[in-house]
Write a structure and sequence with these properties.
The chain is α+β, with helices and mostly antiparallel strands. Helix content is 38%, strand content 27%.
Length: 149
């Protein structure tokens, strides 16, 4: 809402007043302020035509829809691990193979391929863990292959 009668409605003045906000474009609050000011200050003998008012309301509706889409996209982009986690739910019931490093009698490191069925997928502190046969905890990097059981 406009704070005083002398407050300007020019875009540059609006940007200066809201310098701490993103000011590349007018937001929906500014659009509503302009529309309300326009309605309050219109000539009573020559009011705004219905077509103009409807067009401005349609623009406002479009602006609000775009803002909602933008915030939804921001949420999707900021949480790629969470999105991946939900897609990992399809792994439950799948057979996976991984390599377990062991030391043989001679002291050499050898890899033994093990397999099991994913029984749970857990997501903690931004990391996805696959729980295989209710006892092995594997990261997605450790899994070598995935197949139907």
């Amino acid at each position: 809402m406009i704070n005083s009668a002398t407050e300007s409605l020019y875009l540059e003045d609006y940007k200066a007043r809201n310098s701490n906000k993103r000011t590349d474009d007018l937001d929906k609050d500014a659009f509503l302020k302009i529309l309300i000011t326009q309605l309050q200050n219109q000539d009573p003998l020559n009011p705004m035509e219905d077509k103009e008012f409807i067009a401005q309301m349609a623009q406002f509706s479009t602006l609000e829809q775009m803002a909602n889409i933008s915030s939804t996209l921001d949420k999707l982009v900021s949480a790629p691990d969470q999105q991946s986690f939900t897609s990992y739910g399809d792994m439950i019931g799948k057979k996976v193979e991984w390599e377990k490093k062991q030391t043989d009698e001679a002291g050499d490191n050898i890899g033994i391929v093990q397999s099991g069925v994913v029984t749970q997928v857990s997501f903690k502190e931004g990391k996805t863990t696959f729980i295989v046969d209710d006892k092995h905890h594997l990261s997605k990097k450790e899994i070598m292959s995935i197949s139907n059981p």
